[in-house]
Design brief:
With 181 residues, the protein is of the alpha+beta class. It is 39% helix and 17% strand. Helix 4 runs antiparallel to helix 5. The longest helix is centred in the C-terminal third of the chain and has 34 residues.
């Protein structure tokens, strides 16, 4: 994972607490992961993308995959919104992958609405985002998503702190036994 490797490049979303890190591994391969920092939690950054196990031959290949996997890093997401016309429908597979906070979700909804277009979320077919009520429900769900991410991070940090107090050592298990070493 990226938190165990030295970061060679970090790309931050302006005004947000989200970044993508490109990192080399000791074996000469490269990887990337998406991280989020809770401004109210001083414990640092935590992975939200779960891309860290993917392996790439070079840093450019990792960056190319990051741009196609992380919506806010992709020019395609921006170009798709910019290409919308009045009456068009912007289709998003999963809302949680397209937005990371309530404000981010509201901004996406507003940008699309400003173009006279609508949003359809495939994994939430009961949301009709062509109506004001549907847009309000989506904004509410974005707030719930952000709150759940904060609760997950808090519980995980509390669990790690408790385990550390109990003497648990956080490191990779050795591949070789004592006899083999």
């Amino acid at each position: 994972m990226a938190d165990k490797n030295k970061v060679m490049r970090s790309i931050n979303l302006d005004g947000e607490c989200i970044c993508v890190d490109i990192f080399p591994r000791p074996d000469g391969t490269y990887g990337f992961d998406e991280f989020r920092r809770d401004p109210e939690d001083s414990s640092g950054w935590y992975s939200i993308g779960h891309f860290g196990d993917q392996v790439f031959a070079d840093a450019d290949a990792a960056l190319t995959r990051a741009k196609s996997s992380v919506y806010w890093l992709s020019d395609q997401f921006e170009r798709a919104i910019d290409a919308l016309g009045a009456g068009d429908v912007f289709v998003i597979a999963e809302w949680d992958r397209a937005t990371r906070s309530m404000i981010d979700g509201i901004n996406i909804i507003q940008r699309i609405a400003d173009r006279g277009a609508y949003i359809k979320v495939l994994h939430k077919p009961w949301l009709d985002l062509t109506t004001p009520m549907g847009k309000g429900i989506l904004a509410f769900l974005s707030a719930l998503t952000e709150d759940e991410r904060e609760r997950i991070a808090r519980r995980a940090n509390e669990g790690r702190a408790l385990a550390a107090q109990q003497g648990v050592i956080f490191r990779r298990k050795p591949k070789l036994t004592n006899h083999q070493q």
